[in-house]
Amino acid sequence: MRLVADANVLLSAVTGGRARLVLARADLADVLTTVAALDEVNEYAEPLARKLRLPLGTVLLAVATLPVTVVDRDEYAASLREAGRRIGQRDPDDIDTLALALHLHAPVWSNDRDFEGAGVEWYTTA
Residue 103's CB: how many other CB atoms inside 10 A? Predict the structure, then answer.
């Protein structure tokens, strides 16, 4: 199975949440994400390190070693307009994730409800 991961599940995986268990499953063929989602995860690295009382380098290493494939925006650019139409009003930060899912015809994995009603299969570990 292939999944397109939103930033919040990647953050959950870094903190040892349920998402970490899903990523460890051998039957998941591919977990993909966008540069935008990974950038969002990295934005939260410092506050997350403080909250967890860990060195920033440890959190950054955990992010860097997530078993996900990062897909460049050029690959799914043709789906950005449609994704913006479907989800842009609810959360503009999720447009890239939805565009990648539309491009790949793959479900979205997210712990927020923004993808509900966006016309793609949607899974959560919240």
Answer: 18
